[in-house]
Amino acid sequence: MMYAAGQTKIHCPCCRNDTFDKDYRQLNSRGATFFGLDWVNRNATILVCKRCTYIAWFMDDLKELE
Ligand SMILES: [Zn+2]
After folding, report:
1. How far away, in angstroms, is 36 Cα from ligand 1 center?
2. In a designed cystine with 14, which of 24, 29, 36, 54 is the match (CB 3.0 to 4.6 A)?
3. Would you say which domain of life the source belongs to (predicted)?
4. Helix, strand, or coil here: 46?
5. What's the CA-to-centroid distance between 45 and ligand 1, angstroms?
6. Any idea what the CATH number is for the domain that residue 51 is in?
7. Cα–Cα distance for residue pair 1/64, rounded to 1 Å
8. What is the distance in A from the centroid of ligand 1 to the CA of 54?
9. How far is the CA of 41 from the centre of ligand 1 (A)?
10. Could you list the pLDDT tens digit for every one of the 66 residues in the chain?
């Protein structure tokens, strides 16, 4: 799958490939939830390059392209 951030199609900075696997990772630490700071708990979007496995991180969700 190919993705875009806003109007910009994403290419791998390592190998210039444009197909990725998308996944999500939590940015928080457990301590934030314990102290009631749930606003700290955010999911980051990650794209893993299908050719070289480079991982790109994004704070917002990404648009999927055909
Ligand atoms: Zn790559």
Report:
1. 39
2. 54
3. Bacteria
4. strand
5. 17
6. 2.20.25
7. 7
8. 5
9. 29
10. 999 999 999 999 999 999 999 999 887 666 656 666 555 567 889 999 999 999 999 988 899 997
